Structure prediction request, 916 residues.
Amino acid sequence: MHIPDGYLSPETCAVLAAGSAPILYVAARRLAREADTAVVPRVAMASAFGFVVQMLNVPVPDGTSAHAVGAALAAILLGPWGAMLALTVTLVIQALFFGDGGILALGANIFNMGVIAPLTAYVIYRSLGGPSPGRRAFGAVAAGFLSINAAALATGIELGLQPLLFRAADGTPLYNPYPLELAVPAMMFAHLLVAGPVEGLITGLVVTYIQRVQPDLLARHTPAAGSRVWVPLALVVGILVILTPLGLIAGGTPFGEWAPEELAQLVGYVPPGLVELSGRWSGILPGYTVPFLAGIPGGEVIGYVLSAFTGIALVTLAWLILRQLLARPRVRP
Amino acid sequence: MSGADGRPVFEVEQIRLSYLGRFPALAGVTLTVEAGEQIALLGPNGCGKSTLLKVLAGLVFPDSGTVRAFGRDLTSAALTRPDFFAEFRRQVGLLFQNSDAQLFNPTVFEEVAFGPNQLGFPPAEVRRRVQEMLALLEIDGLADRAPFQLSEGQKRRVALAAVLAVDPDVLLLDEPTTGLDPRTNDRLVEILWGLRRLGKTVLVATHDLELARLVADRALIIGEDHRVWADGPVGDVLADRALLYRANLVGRAWGSRAAT
Amino acid sequence: MADPSATPGAAAGSALTLPEWLGAGIGPSTAGSASRRVRLDFVGRTLLGTADVVQRVLFAEEVARQDRLLQRASPAVKVVCFLALILAAGLSRSLPPLILIYASCILLTLLGGLNLGTFLLRTWLVVAVFTGLVVLPGTTSLVTPGDPVLTLLRFGSDAHLGPVKLPAEVSLTRPGLAGGLLVVLRAAASVSLATILTLTTGWFELLRGLGALGLPPAVGMLLTLAYRYIFVLLTVVRDMYYAWQARFLGSTPGRAGRLLGAAAAYALFLRSEALAREVHQAMLARGFRGRPAFVSRPAYSAAASGVLVALTIAALAGAYVWG
Prediction:
């Protein structure tokens, strides 16, 4: 999934690099807190591990052979922060010395494979995996599969935005020519059907093996009492929130969400009940826009992001309240 | 297919091999091995002994020259034929210098059972063979342990048990005693004596002259120029102090006390 | 000490008893069932991959040792110039500046003492496959509508393939072709520049240059260690795959092969952890307190650096004027 140069504009790569930088900085700080002087050799060897692990080919059931990217494996064995740093260094070495992936595109590749993939893998592994060997294996397979697809989705979006944002005056696409509606399905198709299952399989295989020989390796990065798992989760959710304005690009109205006028156009008539009730309730943030921002350029985008925050906050609040109400009463000693 | 029909086990003719096209490993080696011979391949580090063993085991192939095993050409094409492949791999066992590299099963038991399982023996027979191998190598108690956590000597024993479990006719050993504790060393030597009594062919690549004296009838010296410098009875070869010194097998002080 | 049973008349009881099936001959075998050729592609690919890494590094070191203009220039200057050219290629909005920048690539190839023919062949082979083929559909009217340059297929205005409405015609369009060429040339320029840079500079010199440009010393040390120890880990893989190959008798390559892969990943992890501990201890033993210091650098030729800078500025200026 290494993107070569030429497909992404330098601006896109710069933005993605800028987006990755703070996350990597946080990762570095967290690691340094654990073991100060040992950080450098540890990340270095983990990067070497990440590099060489990608060279391991295994036979796959259909008769050919395949290898994995290893982001999920890294996240499981090294924890999210170590994995992000290690994979970033691996990507840098691959791009600089082995021409695997472009130089400018490093920003994007690091974002997709060095941040999104390991974070997704870690969150999935922690939430779906469990202490039993079967659950662990399941968590590992899911982490592998979903991490690759998350990275692929991000890649598809990044590629698909290029013809939208970067065209010459005469309409020539300056970078990747395939728009979102082609790029995303193409990437997802290949990764849901091939690369994803392969990654899931290999991640599952390795975790199962380690579970048999040295299970404590797999429990290392399990934070005590679920204390710090919310940070990677928050990061993933945060990234999703930032991506919500992409909805503005999608043309047309989602299925079943038509206004009465659109319905009249589509089928020729409007059911009377719909005529009566439509428009009664508009909500605080109608259409995911903040009313007073409507006139400002970019106001729509900000409206989307604010709506996302508000929605998440409300859901989290509701869940916290419910948890308190439904929790079993503590037994007084 | 073994040397019972009088044919040599290995016939190697002027093989040359370079790694990555630039690092010579073998520069014209010729060698014939008859069934039942016990040979020591002597030479300093980097002379090409390991490479020669890998060639005999059909893992790497020379750039020029020919290799024949059991009377048939040993080429990568020949090894794609299932019948020759299965026969050859069972008959030739290679014990690697690096024990870690050969232990890939989750437990010691499974490691030793790997070979017999592939041969198609029923589970009860496999279990019997594994237990007898573990007993032979005196590692019965380690059956359920993960190989990676054992000591070097224990790992070496497991690897040897795993290689012997398929009853190979030819045993190639790459530096088997390097870094080994004396007791494991003794056990290894006793096993090699036992294999000699059974008529098996053994090649040991080593720079341990004591081991050569103990187990071999014939010794070859491969020099730092990747060629064969000597090939003869082990007693004669080891008596030539000047040659041993030139071949970088002994230091200046060696041999000042008579060793028997 | 000698083999007690080798001397005639010695006590047989002192010799080791081996299991009776050792030396008894082969038992049941599953070889008869396999009529297909034995294929261990995954082993071959892995071993080839590891060898390829070493091969590339050796070649790069060879090139970096040659005494040519680029090799004599300071690595920091090289990084800045090459990066500027890559960026310029990335920012170009039309073909003429890109062509100019690619032309400067060719010039740089020669200034680095590289064999132009082999270089062009290898870079364009990679670019044609990974980039050329991928953007090919993008040059057609299916993706990029516009002035048709060459009509490929004509379906007629009401053609259908089942429920799908076919376009009236499929052609190579002017904007499509131009866009495709832009992507391909950009990719070629970037790959060429990156390759020339790393081939003529060598890893450690490159890091030194980056350090001079402000890369934190800890990061430089990190990259150095990672790079150096990749080769140690590669031998782990190589040895394990060879050893497995020696013991695989041809029954079920799938399961046994996947076992090898899993075991190799585990072995790599263990080794990397052990190395991290040992390297850390070695560093501490030599007085490392967390802040690496770089050795004084060898002398670079200011003239060579100057030529490179002049060339870069000329290329950039040309690209700006024509773009």
Observations:
- Chain A has a mean pLDDT of 83.
- The first helix of chain A runs from residue 10 to 34.
- DSSP finds ten helices and two strands in chain A.
